[in-house]
């Protein structure tokens, strides 16, 4: 009876442990981020049609890596067995391939043969997959920030346009006033000139 209680208690604890355990190393879908040795690779893993499609791009790969090692291959370490499985060759920095089994860790190695089924010990970069973050609250926050920034930009633009309109109107009015003053001065000058001319003629006639 005592052994039965211990067995039941052990099973209960095991179930609780499985439920409460964090979901680690199960990021089969997510962002690929591999770095090391002045090489950086970015990409994405998506589950589609019964397998994981892994696509992305690397920067910093040197061709050839060594005299006979002139190929680069991407590998994934399966979660169940820990087996390192070939995903695809990296062609001029780009990669796109499939892996059937769930995986977590990823490696890029230099190889003599791009179709090799066993990874060499020349590991260029390695890393894990960062799971997608579907937290909608973050998206909402970003959207609200974008709307606020747009409103601020619109307000600033409107104020600038108003100031430009006022400046333009002031310039036009100033030009009109200046033109009127010139016309008035010309008319006054002509009137004074005519008056002097008539006076001069009158004096001569007398």
Q: Would you kindly provide a brief summary of this structure?
A:
This protein has two helices and nine strands. It has helices at residues 2-20, 136-205; strands at 30-36, 39-48, 51-59, 71-78, 84-89, 94-99, 103-111, 123-127, 129-131.
List keywords for this structure.
single chain, 206 residues, alpha+beta, Immunoglobulin-like, 5-stranded antiparallel sheet, 4-stranded antiparallel sheet, 2 helices, 9 strands, 43% helix, 31% strand, rod-shaped
Account of the protein in words:
The chain has 2 domains: 30-132, Immunoglobulin-like (Sandwich); 136-195. The protein has 2 helices and 9 strands; from the N terminus they run H-E-E-E-E-E-E-E-E-E-H. It has helices at 2-20, 136-205; strands at residues 30-36, 39-48, 51-59, 71-78, 84-89, 94-99, 103-111, 123-127, 129-131. The strands form 2 sheets. The protein has a 5-stranded antiparallel β-sheet with strand order 6-3-2-1-9, with no helix packed on it. Strands 5-4-7-8 form a 4-stranded antiparallel β-sheet, with no helix packed on it. Strand 2 and strand 3 form a beta hairpin. It is rod-shaped, with a radius of gyration of 41 Å. It starts with a helix and ends with a helix. Residues 9-27 have low confidence and may be disordered.
Number of domains: 2
Please bin the fraction of helical residues.
Answer: 40-55%
Beta-strand fraction estimate: 25-35%
Number of helices: 2
In one word, what is the shape?
rod-shaped
Distance between the termini: 155 Å
Radius of gyration: 41 Å
CATH domain topology of the largest domain = Immunoglobulin-like
The helix/strand order is HEEEEEEEEEH
Q: What strand line-up does the widest sheet have? A: 6-3-2-1-9
CATH class of the largest domain: Mainly Beta
**SSE-based structural type:** alpha+beta
Instruction: Flag low-confidence runs.
Output: 9-27
Tell me the CATH architecture of the largest domain.
Sandwich
Mean pLDDT across all amino acids: 75
Number of strands: 9
């Amino acid at each position: 009876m005592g052994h039965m209680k211990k067995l039941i208690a052990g099973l209960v604890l095991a179930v609780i442990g499985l439920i409460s355990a964090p979901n680690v190393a199960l990021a089969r879908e997510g962002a690929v981020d591999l770095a090391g040795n002045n090489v950086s690779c970015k990409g994405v893993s998506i589950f589609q049609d019964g397998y994981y499609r892994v696509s992305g791009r690397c920067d910093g790969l040197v061709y050839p890596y060594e005299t006979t090692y002139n190929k680069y291959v991407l590998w994934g370490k399966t979660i169940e067995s820990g087996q390192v499985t070939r995903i695809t060759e990296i062609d001029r920095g780009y990669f796109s391939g499939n892996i059937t089994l769930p995986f977590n860790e990823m490696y890029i190695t230099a190889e003599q043969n791009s179709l090799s089924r066993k990874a060499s010990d020349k590991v260029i970069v390695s890393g894990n997959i960062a799971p997608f973050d579907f937290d909608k609250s973050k998206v909402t926050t970003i959207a609200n920030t974008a709307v606020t920034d747009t409103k601020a930009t619109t307000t600033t633009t409107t104020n600038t346009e108003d100031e430009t309109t006022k400046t333009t109107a002031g310039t036009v009015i100033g030009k009109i006033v200046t033109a009127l003053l010139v016309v008035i001065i010309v008319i006054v000058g002509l009137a004074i000139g005519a008056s002097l001319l008539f006076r001069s003629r009158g004096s001569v006639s007398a």
